[in-house]
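Example record

The entry below shows one chain as it appears in the dataset: sequence first, then structure tokens.
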Amino acid sequence: MLIEVNLPDELAWALAEFLKRAGYSDYRQLAVSEQEAYDMQDAGEKVRAALAERGIAPR
């Protein structure tokens, strides 16, 4: 599935910062199962990588 989102720079950077800082325990607190937490984390990492490809990669 392809999802395209248009974000202003400041929101793209804010999302990238969040995804950089979010870890398994953050996803697990919001998930109904371990598998869902892993799936959420995997999706977050894919979005983070896509942002990085566009030059939005906080250190």
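Notes for this example: The chain has one domain: 9-53. The CA atoms of residues 12 and 56 lie 7 Å apart.
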